[in-house]
Queue: 2 jobs
Job 1
Amino acid sequence: MQENQISLNLSEDYIQKKETIIYKDIIIDRKSKYTVVWTYVTSREDIDNFMKKLIEDEYYRKATHNTYAYRIKLENWSILEWKNDDWETWAGMCILRELQRKNAINILLIVTRYFWGIKLQTDRFKNVINATKMYLEKNS
């Protein structure tokens, strides 16, 4: 999916409160640790500013991967959505797919992974999906 693609959803939207929420080490699997950060956004500029601020924090700057996805409702009611894998191939798509299922809008969700030497193979995707779902379930 490309950034300029849009989709229209007619179902009820899941709208995040205007705050930032962090769940550190929400999943620990064979020494890999997963943290979820969620924040309210209304523009691409909000996302860029938040990511710059996040990376200023040593915890996130030293992480192996900071994968993310976002969905923003534009003024014309279309949805702008995108994902970033941060070298964890397909992880951003796993996050975006869960946001789409929940019809989450004006949301940036980041799943941070610290890798400690044990390869998780495809379980890494399960962990990204589960971290995203855990957040969505706790805050819906």
Job 2
Amino acid sequence: MYYVYALKSLKDNKNYYGQTDDVDKRLSLHNSGKVASTRYRRPFVLIGYKTFETRNEARWIEYSIKHHSDKKNKFMSELKSQK
């Protein structure tokens, strides 16, 4: 299984989106400063994630979220409706 996840930075209150095969491990890497793109924005909290069968599918959704605001808004509303 692969996941597309959303994190919220407690430092700047902005969101970060990514994909992984282990959400807990990836969150730990973000919060420990081992991810260069988020090192100066930590700490992070997990907003939520969606599950996908293949890495290609997860990568495509991550790309879509990062490049299309309508896809990002849809993804965030789906995460909120899951709670």
